[in-house]
């Protein structure tokens, strides 16, 4: 029996499952095979619709291509009928602004309402608007009990207004990327209180000129396990997530942390950004944030955040740096304009630290850089080093500059001080000789640990 005959003998339900694993464009191409395949295509429950190909064409063809795309989607949804269950609906489109090319907002709204009424489980919307003075505003009623995952990437064209009685009892994943909100409406806080099983949130504040968050936010959830957020405007922040295991935070200078409860945290990524809208720079007291993440096992810190920590704990606010008893992996991003002043204090307060990662070794060298740095070694040659007492077993250096004297000197300093070191992983940014030759040259560097080995990573 031929392969084609074997496939044709499968029931429609099985063929529909196969087509659902393809993109909608690929699945639609099978409808030319026979009338039966056209009927099977109407049973797919995963729709992945993308009009970006039509926009990339010549300008004179875009309007016609948009009409064809609109006709295809509308016809397909009508063919399926209102009773057909949709599992996942992905829509990546361009919306018309000034009667040029793109889709009509009202038409897009009707498509989304169609799949919501049919019990969609995973809704992923990415809507792009062309430049114009009056971006369209889409009104969506996402109050559906079937939604498990909701992803919105809608830029300036979408203003979210939630009804007071909204309830999404099955929602577990929420992604809000550059979605605009009313100033007086803390949408994320509201959803946290109305989604009892929510486990993951990705939130990126809209880049529009109008602020999209209230001045003070208080977020809490006992079910949340992963949280990734990016703030643009200055806000006062309170977090209460007792079961959170992953936390990623990127915020601008001026944000203030009030109460932070993250007792179950395993991994944290902290990024502090300079303001980009003309605000005066001011240092922030990070004591509540640092105390809130002190139980973390893996910690990633950007270069500016390191600078801000020194103002919190030793200069401006003179707070006491907490102990990091559970910390086993510390990752540091380095930049030439930022120093390592706080780094020795973090290492001393991390008695169980085993892995130390540097994303580049460039940093500002000064007397206050501490004994982690090899700068001004002669002034403190006889002082004890935090590295000597450290239990670090793995040292990983990314973007290592081969033949750079400062990088080589810093590497020698690490090797001379880390007595428990077992593996040094190096990823070179300018490697111009075979890895084997470079690996042999590293073996001649004196090491405090006899068991230390080198590993060159791509």
Walkthrough of the structure:
With 458 residues, this protein is α/β, with parallel strands linked by helices. Among the domains are: 1-44, no CATH class; 45-214, no CATH class. The protein has 14 helices and 19 strands. It has a 16-stranded parallel beta sheet that branches. It starts with a helix and ends with a strand. The mean pLDDT is 81.
Q: Notable features of this structure?
A:
single chain, 458 residues, alpha/beta, 16-stranded parallel beta sheet, 3-stranded parallel beta sheet, F-box_AtFBL13-like, F-box domain-containing protein, LRR_FXL15/At3g58940/PEG3-like, FBL60-like
| Biggest β-sheet description | 16 strands, parallel
- Contiguous low-pLDDT stretches (5 residues minimum) are none
Using only CA atoms, what is the Rg?
Answer: 28 Å
* N-to-C span: 48 Å
What would you call the structural class? Answer: alpha/beta
Q: Can you count the helices?
A: 14
Number of strands: 19
Q: What is the percent of helical residues?
A: 25-40%
The global form is: globular
- Quick check: average pLDDT? 81
Residue fraction in strands = 15-25%
Task: Compose a concise summary of this entry.
With 458 residues, this protein is of the alpha/beta class. Among the domains are: 1-44, no CATH class; 45-214, no CATH class.
């Amino acid at each position: 029996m031929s392969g084609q005959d074997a496939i044709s003998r499968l029931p429609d339900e099985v063929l529909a499952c196969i087509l659902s694993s393809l993109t909608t464009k690929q699945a639609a191409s099978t409808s030319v095979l026979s009338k039966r395949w056209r009927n099977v295509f109407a049973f797919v429950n995963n729709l992945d619709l993308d009009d970006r190909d039509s926009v990339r064409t010549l300008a004179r063809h875009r309007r016609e291509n948009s009409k064809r795309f609109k006709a295809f989607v509308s016809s397909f949804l009508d063919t399926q009928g209102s009773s057909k269950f949709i599992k996942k609906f992905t829509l990546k489109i361009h919306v018309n602004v000034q009667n040029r090319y793109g889709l009509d907002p009202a038409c897009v709204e009707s498509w989304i309402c169609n799949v919501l009424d049919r019990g969609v489980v995973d809704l992923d919307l990415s809507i792009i608007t062309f430049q114009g003075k009056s971006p369209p505003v889409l009104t969506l009623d996402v109050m559906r009990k079937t939604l498990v995952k909701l992803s919105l990437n809608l830029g300036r064209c979408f203003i979210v207004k939630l009804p007071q009685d909204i309830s999404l009892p099955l929602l577990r994943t929420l992604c809000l990327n550059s979605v605009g909100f009313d100033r007086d409406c803390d949408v994320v806080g509201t959803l946290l209180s109305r989604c009892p099983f929510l486990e993951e949130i990705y939130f990126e504040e809209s880049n529009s000129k109008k602020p999209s968050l209230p001045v003070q936010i208080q977020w809490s959830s006992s079910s949340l396990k992963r949280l990734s957020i990016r703030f643009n405007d200055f806000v006062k922040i309170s977090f209460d997530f007792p079961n959170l295991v992953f936390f990623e935070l990127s915020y601008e200078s001026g944000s203030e942390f009030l109460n932070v409860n993250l007792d179950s945290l395993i991994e944290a990524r902290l990024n502090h950004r300079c303001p980009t809208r003309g605000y005066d720079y001011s240092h922030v007291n990070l004591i509540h944030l640092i105390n809130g993440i002190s139980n973390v096992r893996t910690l990633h810190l950007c270069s500016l955040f390191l600078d801000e920590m020194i103002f919190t704990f030793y200069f401006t606010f003179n707070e006491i740096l907490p102990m990091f008893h559970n910390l086993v992996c510390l990752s540091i991003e380095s930049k030439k304009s930022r120093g390592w002043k706080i780094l020795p204090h973090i290492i001393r307060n991390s008695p169980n630290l085993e892995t130390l990662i540097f994303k580049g070794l460039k940093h500002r060298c000064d007397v206050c850089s501490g004994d982690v740095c090899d700068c001004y070694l002669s002034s403190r040659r006889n002082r004890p080093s935090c590295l000597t007492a450290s239990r670090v077993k793995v040292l990983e250096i990314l973007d290592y500059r081969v033949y750079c004297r400062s990088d080589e000197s810093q590497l020698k300093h690490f090797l001379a001080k880390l007595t428990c070191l077992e593996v040094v992983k190096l990823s070179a940014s300018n490697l111009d000789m075979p890895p084997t030759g470079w690996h042999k040259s590293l073996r001649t560097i004196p090491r405090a640990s006899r068991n230390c080995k080198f590993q060159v990573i791509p």
